[in-house]
Design a protein that fits this description.
Radius of gyration: 17 Å
Distance between the termini: 18 Å
CATH architecture: Alpha-Beta Complex
Structural class: alpha/beta
CATH class: Alpha Beta
Number of helices: 10
Strand content: 15-25%
Number of domains: 1
Order of helices and strands: EEHEHEEHEHEHEHEHHHHEE
Shape: globular
Helix content: 25-40%
CATH topology: putative 2-phosphosulfolactate phosphatase
Length: 241
């Protein structure tokens, strides 16, 4: 099992820390929830990229017959792209067997930052919390839960998800050393564990999504432990373990 557990509430908050052997990237609304959903529905893999024009270059290299352009800016479908960042868009009929080239405002950027070192990088959401906990139990060394945040600021739902992971791990190990940030995240989860949807819906990003017509996404992403998928980001591709 991992030895220590820390939480970074934004990518910028952990730039000076010692690199962790395992990094878990969290973007509940909506990138990592969408990644879990896409892989559950048979996507061949997901290539995260920083910018839309880069996504187009990668898609042309892969071939549009076997790949899809996916992502958002300002929470909406990018012009000319096939899919947005709504988990509901990633049905089996749409994504099975396809490689998804994926760019989002926060989540894919956090993934690319996490992959700059030699860490093992996973993607977590509330949807696959328990599966990620089991992956961390099987891992060794130090682990970091890296929240994507919202345009550089703390995101309530990402912190809550990190806390859900911390809470489950602490319950299983009395020897796990957790940071103050991890302890704070666990407190956020404990205070809201019985009202996840309502709690998440009150967050800044959730309110913005609701105002743009994505209330169903907020509810869908607030479900806990409904997926066994463990997305691993390695060699430029996110694939299920």
């Amino acid at each position: 099992m991992i030895r220590t557990l820390d939480v970074g509430v934004t990518p910028a908050s952990v730039t000076s820390r010692k690199p962790a052997e395992t990094v878990v990237v969290i973007d509940v609304l909506r990138a990592t929830s969408t990644i879990v959903t896409a892989l559950e529905n048979g996507a061949a893999g997901i290539v995260p990229v920083r910018e839309a024009d880069e996504a187009i270059v990668v898609m042309r290299r892969l071939g549009h017959e076997r790949s899809l352009l996916c992502g958002e800016r300002d929470s909406r479908l990018i012009a000319g792209f096939d899919l947005d960042n709504s988990p509901a868009s990633y049905t089996r009929e749409r994504v099975e067997g396809k490689t998804l080239v994926f760019t989002t405002t926060n989540g894919t950027r956090a993934l690319l930052e996490a992959a700059r070192g030699n860490a093992t990088v996973y993607c977590a959401a509330l949807l696959n919390r328990e599966a990620i906990v089991e992956a961390l139990i099987a891992a060794e060394g130090d682990a970091l839960l890296l929240c994507a945040g919202n345009e550089g600021s703390l995101s309530f739902e990402d912190t809550l998800c990190a806390g859900a992971i911390v809470d489950a791990l602490v319950r299983r190990s009395k020897t796990l050393a957790i940071s103050d940030a991890a302890r704070a995240a666990a407190t956020v989860f404990s205070a809201n564990a019985k009202r996840l949807t309502t709690a998440i819906a009150g967050g800044t990003h959730a309110v913005a999504l609701v105002n743009k017509g994505f209330a169903a996404d907020v509810a869908a992403c607030a479900r806990l432990d409904v997926s066994r998928c463990v997305p691993l980001y390695a060699d430029g591709m996110i694939s299920p373990v």
